[in-house]
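Technical note accompanying the year-one report. For the benefit of new consortium partners, we illustrate the data format agreed upon in the data management plan: each record pairs a sequence with a structure-token string. No post-processing was applied to the example shown here.
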Amino acid sequence: MAIKITNLPKDAKNALKDIIKSDGTVKNEKEAIYALSDYLILSEEPSAIYDIAKFVAENESGLSDKIAKRAFIKMTEDEEFSLFERRKALIKSLSDCIKETNELNFEGFLTFRTEKYISLLYGAVYKAAEEVLLEREYKEMTNLLREALKETKSVIREAHIYGCFIFDENGKEITLEKGVYLIKPDRMLEKLLSLAPERIYIHYPPEGEMLSAIEEVFAPNVIYIN
């Protein structure tokens, strides 16, 4: 029995004219299913990602653009949302729909039969939004700390960092509190803010993400010593 595709948009008809005849019938069912899935991913997916990003960002345009761009990156880097998974979801939905009636109403398919595929798009956008919002919060925090630092009087002129140890310009070791010389990475920024050094010399960087925070807050007064 011939398979028929109806309600195809004009650009889809033009793109798939060698696979789907002008009356909607297909020459090869499998080829048509693969072609339709590729058409959706290449032609319709970008606008869908931007629409979802606008919804997630509550129409904050600058934020939605960042989220959408990050989502595209997630879909190339994260196996969960990869091209293979998105294509597989579309192919299965298209196959199931055609098996039921030997006909595919394209508009109806997009509205009612793409749940798995759309969930992958939403998943990529939500993960991207989480990363972008965390980065924005981090940036706002470091900006506030930088402003607070301007109002803080310097206790030492120089701070020399050797891993989890801090020394002043005279080679005196700085303590976190009385008798505690080993400064954990997550407490280092706190200590440096209280000391407000004019220059910070990194001899051996601290572990974890603390280094980037120090660079953000104290820039351009962070100097690396080889």
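Partners are asked to follow this layout when depositing records. Helices lie at 10-15, 29-56, 61-77, 83-101, 106-112, 115-150, 185-195, 210-218.
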